[in-house]
Amino acid sequence: MKEQYQLQLQILMEETGCERSEAELAFSLSGNNIEKAITTIGFLSKFITVFKIKLIFTKETIYSLIDMAINSKTLEILRFNIVFSHNPSVYEIPANMDWFSFEKAIFSARLDAGTMENYTREIEKNLKSYVQQAVKEFSSISNDRIKKIIKTFFSYTEVSIEIINENLNLTQFKKLPDYNVKQNSDFFTGYDLGFVKLDVKILEDSKGEFVRKISEGDTVLSIITDKRDIAHYLVHLIGGIKDGSMMPIPATVKKIFYKNNNYEIHLYYAPSIMGLAKTKNNIKLKVLGAKSQLWWEKILPW
Fold it and tell me: How far, CA to CA in Å, does 279 sit from each of 72, 142, 170, 211?
């Protein structure tokens, strides 16, 4: 029993990034139930800091937004998104909105006219790597330190920086905000992404089901192949990226159409997020089973 307890403690620490004392407290509060402990640990402490950053490059007349979430214990970057634009309306987006609204606004801005798409993609990778290396040199992080890191990275030009941070516990970071709350309604004006259909691929499996035997309601294993910025944003939401790489995720078959000796399969991921996969009729697909519970409820119990 003691060995099993130690193993569960280790799993809890690895899954949540908590310390041993926090894991032990979570177990005691949850009756030594590991599933309840994972939920409990999410409420115990705020160790995720989200920085919402606005930049103005005065000489170039460029406006930028950055959001980054950092684990204040491990100093690992959990999320990092950025946009550069010549459109001054980008800078009008308030940094005092909740972190998720701010992140959504960044990806909406990446679709607007004036966005420097190629420059954004190039700088995003380089700046994230630079910030990750720089924060590791500190024992803690703050607005002033993040501002200094960014100013050093862009030392070749003049940049004005505004930073607001938000401290979150694991539950707050994992759970999406309630957008029916009135305080968020004004922030979304002009930034509603609406219904989106993504290009996806259902994984093949030599031991799976022929596509002609797939039924509406089945759960299949898919991977998002869409290259648009909006797809990159949505993949973050539905858990399709790990360590920067696309990961297979379950999806529910919503509709099936047979056209020109091929099948079009419409998949459901989340409200307003659908996928479209095309496959030949002699292909066997990876089927996980009929839908009984939403997939995200299984991996995000909170």
Answer: 45, 50, 39, 8
Helix (H) or strand (E) holding 69: strand 62-71
Least Cα distance to 273 among 193, 216, 195 occurs for 195
Three-state secondary structure string covering 234-245: HHHHCCCEECCE
Distances (CA, A) of 285 to 139, 154, 226, 247, 277: 49, 48, 19, 17, 11
What pTM was computed for the model?
A: 0.55
In this structure, what token pair is assigned to residue 241?
Answer: 């990226």
The phi, psi pair for 214, rounded to 5°, reads -70, 140
Separation CA 20–CA 195 (nearest Å): 43
Task: Report how many helices (DSSP H) and strands (DSSP E) the chain contains, helices first.
Answer: 10, 14
* 284-297 tens-digit pLDDT: 998 887 554 444 44
Q: How many CA atoms lie within 13 A of 55 on its CB side?
A: 25
**Helical residues (DSSP H) of 61-169, grouped into ranges:** 99-109, 117-135, 143-153
Q: Using CA atoms, how far apart are residues 285 and 209, in angstroms rounded to an integer?
A: 5
Per-residue pLDDT band at 195 (split at 50, 70, 90): low
